[in-house]
Design a protein that fits this description.
The protein is mainly alpha-helical. It is about 70% helix and about 0% strand. The protein is built from 13 helices and no strands. It is globular and about 55 Å long.
Length: about 325
């Protein structure tokens, strides 16, 4: 498998995962486990870091592509939320905007919000904070020993999580950088190392079943097992996709996959306005359901614009 070639089936599922996160943020209906996409993206990052660094990668090229993909849209959304918080603070009740939080948000450094949770100014950027931290961890591992980069990164994660469990740090950065969710990236590395081929039809059936289970897992098992459930099925889903790397995907699914990052980064203001201002999202009704679905659909063309402006022109140029 060429490291520069996109695996189209994975791109398609990236799009489905991104829309799952959009639905999760509506906080509407029973299928709250739609946030499985976060774990899926983290696992993918671990896998593709190993795949894209088969040969020695220079530090400049390693960081340039990642920053061009992540920073422009994230920074724009951070500025939009910061301005919104200053103009209408009652709407952004948990957001803290000051020089310290702005600098930390720009530098992907964890900080506390008013609800005592660790969020940057643009709250969904917490996933980027964790991604960037693991990219840095992996980069250091490559510089130490490129051939053993995976083992060094995995060992570092185990050590960090162990320290977090033993010391229970309260500082935002130490607490964030020692959380167990770092294991998602480790699983991606392991999947890269254990990759093997499987019958195509079994894969397709398994992918379909996995997506259904991923969306319904939290509904069936409750909150207690949600993280374990999401990680387990996201791992299985990726394993099932890999043998289908030559399978072409066209149309809407491919487009959703290509702009999955833009969907993730741009959806939150739209969903928050519709589901927290226009309707009571705690009440299930036909009207509310229709409004929520229209809001999710509306996210797609808005994300396409963001994709054209911030990804195609900058990252893909």
């Amino acid at each position: 498998m060429s490291k520069g070639k996109k695996i189209e089936i994975i791109q398609a599922i990236r799009g489905i995962a991104a829309l799952g996160i959009v639905y999760f943020h509506t906080e509407y209906g029973p299928w709250r486990s739609a946030n499985w996409g976060v774990d899926f993206f983290f696992i993918l990052s671990g896998y593709f870091l190993m795949l894209s660094t088969k040969t020695v990668v220079g530090g400049g090229s390693y960081w340039k592509r990642k920053m061009l993909r992540i920073c422009p849209l994230y920074y724009v959304m951070t500025i939009v939320v910061a301005i919104g918080c200053l103009l209408v603070p009652s709407v952004f009740r948990t957001t803290i905007v000051n020089v310290k939080t702005l600098i930390k948000s720009i530098l992907f450094l964890p900080c506390y919000a008013h609800n005592n949770k660790i969020f940057p100014i643009y709250s969904i950027g917490w996933t980027l904070n964790l991604e960037i931290f693991f990219y840095l961890l992996f980069f250091v591992a490559m510089r130490i020993n490129h051939r053993r980069r995976g083992s060094i990164a995995v060992g570092s994660v185990f050590l960090l999580v162990l320290l977090g469990q033993l010391l229970h740090p309260q500082d935002a950065m130490l607490k964030f950088w020692t959380q167990s969710r770092l294991f998602d990236f480790v699983i991606g590395i392991w999947i890269y190392c254990l990759e093997q081929k499987t019958n195509r039809m079994i894969c397709i059936a398994g992918i379909s079943a996995s997506i259904l289970l991923l969306f319904s897992g939290k509904y069936l098992l409750g909150d207690h097992f949600s993280y374990l459930w999401n990680t387990l099925w996201s791992s299985i889903l990726l394993l099932l996709c890999l043998p289908l790397h030559n399978m072409p995907v066209k149309g809407l699914l491919k487009s959703l996959g290509d702009m999955s990052y833009s969907i993730y980064m741009s959806h939150y203001p739209i969903i928050a306005f519709v589901c927290w201002v226009l309707i009571d999202n705690t009440k299930l009704s036909l009207t509310n359901t229709a409004i929520v679905m229209m809001a999710i659909i509306f996210v797609i063309p808005c994300s396409w614009v963001m994709y054209q402006v911030f990804e195609k022109r900058l990252y893909l140029s």
